[in-house]
Amino acid sequence: MEKTLLYEGKAKRIYSVAGKNDEVIQEFKDDATAFNGLKKDTIHNKGIRNTEITTILMNYLGENGIPTHFIEKISDNEMIVKKVDIIKVEVVCRNVAAGSLIKKFGFKEGTALQNPIVEYYLKSDTLGDPLFTVDHITALGLASAKDMEYIKSLTLIINELLVTFFRKRNIRVVDFKLEFGRDKDNNIILADEISPDTCRFWDVETNEKLDKDRFRFDLGKVEEAYEEILNRIKN
Ligand code: TMP
């Protein structure tokens, strides 16, 4: 397959495929960054594991009625996805207080939230991904208020689906980040990835962190956490 690099991000590369205008290849790298690129390293086998984890989760969400960009996994670290225009809004959904919720608002880590909190961050490395509101989003022309209502409702359904899926595997879905895009027909669909890079997963019994926080905060056993998530969701 003849492919041309279209875009390289911190954790993935996107390639166009000769003769296919509506599809791209999404390749997962072992590179890991945190704190807007300040901390950098590689996590052995992360690309392979995140490809498999994202494949399982995108398939599961698709089977449950969520429109996604996922088409098929084509190698250990590559998948074919629908080509979309990414909406430059990172959508974060939280069930349990952790991460920036603690830093910004003083929640105590591990507090179960009565209702999920949905937040929006501007997807911009140069501006450091600031938290913003739907009014900022519409003023910047990134999406309409109606689009954002739809994105929020999809996010809450995805949350329910992920919580149910992971509960059966003894994992708490603490929070996660989603990205959406517009396909060729202008439909809004789920894009990007769902993996321990973009979610916080805690073991239900021990509260052990099984996600990228192990890398962010030098907690050790980083590769093992990705492997553990993959093993728990494989069956
Ligand atoms: P936060 O608590 O640091 O705001 O992160 C919330 C969730 O979003 C967490 O599951 C990790 C994920 N996330 C990303 O996927 N990319 C990012 O750049 C950041 C900051 C967080």
Provide structural commentary.
This protein has 235 residues and is α+β, with helices and mostly antiparallel strands. 30% of the residues lie in helices and 36% in strands. It has six helices and 14 strands. It has helices spanning 46-63, 100-105, 134-139, 145-167, 213-216, 222-234, and strands spanning 3-8, 12-17, 20-28, 31-34, 39-42, 70-75, 78-82, 85-86, 89-96, 112-122, 131-132, 171-182, 188-191, 199-203. The strands form three sheets. Strands 8, 9, 10, 11, 12, 13 and 14 form a seven-stranded antiparallel sheet that branches. The chain has a five-stranded antiparallel sheet with strand order 1-2-3-7-6, covered by helices on one side. Strand 2 and strand 3 form a beta hairpin. It is globular, with a radius of gyration of 17 Å. The two termini are 31 Å apart. The model has no long low-confidence stretch (mean pLDDT 97). It binds thymidine-5'-phosphate. The site of thymidine-5'-phosphate (TMP) has 12 residues, from helix 2, strand 12 and strand 14. Thymidine-5'-phosphate binds next to helix 2, strand 12 and strand 14.
**Ligands bound to this protein structure:** thymidine-5'-phosphate
Number of helices: 6
Q: Low-confidence parts lasting 5 or more residues at pLDDT below 50? A: none
Helical/strand content category = alpha+beta
The total of beta strands comes to 14
Radius of gyration: 17 Å
> Shape from CA axes?
globular
Task: Characterize the main sheet.
Answer: 7 strands, antiparallel
Beta-strand share of residues? 35-45%
Percent of residues in helices: 25-40%
- Spell out the helices and strands N to C: EEEEEHEEEEHEEHHEEEHH
Q: What do the pLDDT scores average to?
A: 97
Intertermini distance:
31 Å
